[in-house]
Amino acid sequence: MFTVISCFEVSLRNLVDQHYISLHGEDWLRDSAIRGGRFDNSKCTLTARTINEMVTKLGANYSHGKVVAELGFGFWRYMFSRHQYRAAGQTLINVFPSLPLSSPTMQYNSIFVYNELAKTNNIRNRIAHHEAICFSPTLEVKNTRFARENYAHIIQLFQWMNIDEGALLYGLDHIISVCNQIDAL
Fold first, then answer.
1. Buried b (16+ CB within 10 A) or exposed e, 136-163
2. What string of pLDDT tens digits covers the 185 residues of the chain?
């Protein structure tokens, strides 16, 4: 599952980066975090600080690509939060071209995407902290429902980004077969 999540994380960050490069230039992260940059406001302080700390940490080894690679999933998720989304031009939703159309009862907007990414961020963190993902939350009973639901959610996110998840994950994706094996125990 962590491999699938990692592939999703890299895909998301690369699409976000490509999107903003096309709008704001090759060095959009550093430019957005400097004084007078897009994230130089009271609502985006943490975003600007995170970027500036990474630039400082890299020092003479700085490159835009290295900053992109060093920033974690939570950072990329926050690009869809209200203030970062607005500060950067309110166009990032375009990295999800197959997102369903909004209706009066359901808005498929940046806040929706932010909340959907939170689900993936949560399971990512659970796995990174070695928490169980194949047990019932209240009982010590094997249960792959949580893992299966999160897997299906990640696949849906790939599809909303128009990424052929089957091709991308070929040879890496064994989630369903492993869940089936666990269920058969």
1. eeeeeeebbebbbebbeebbebbebbeb
2. 999 999 999 999 999 999 999 999 999 999 999 999 999 999 999 999 999 999 999 999 999 999 999 999 999 999 999 999 999 999 999 999 999 999 999 999 999 999 999 999 999 998 998 888 887 666 677 889 899 999 999 999 999 999 999 999 999 999 999 999 998 88
